[in-house]
């Protein structure tokens, strides 16, 4: 089984791939890009929930840090959720300029966010949660997003 760090870092890569596929679909035809958008939006939300509902809570419980890195990451998740929603509205309106304006902002935010998680938070989480790593990864794998 992979570590928490490996699992979530790999999921970042998966979401990045879906993001690129979505942008490619919009370039080809904004009218037919809805499926690619919905797949990206669903998988991004699943990633946020794996962190917020499982890993962050486990980390906070173990370390007692509730106003540190996890609070910042939750705030950034909220910003990304808003941008993803705005991209969906732009798709509905068939407004490529608005879509790509929001997707460019999202891409920059995601890159910075993922770097902070991968270089700081995930190593900290792995250090504090290594004994529970298998259980936490299994819980994240089985999460259902509604």
Automatic annotation (TrEMBL):
GO terms for cellular component: plasma membrane. Pfam families: Hemerythrin. InterPro entries: Hemerythrin-like. Gene3D superfamilies: nmb1532 protein domain like. Residues 4-125 form the Hemerythrin-like domain. This is Hemerythrin domain-containing protein. The lineage of its organism: Bacteria, Pseudomonadati, Campylobacterota, Epsilonproteobacteria, Campylobacterales.
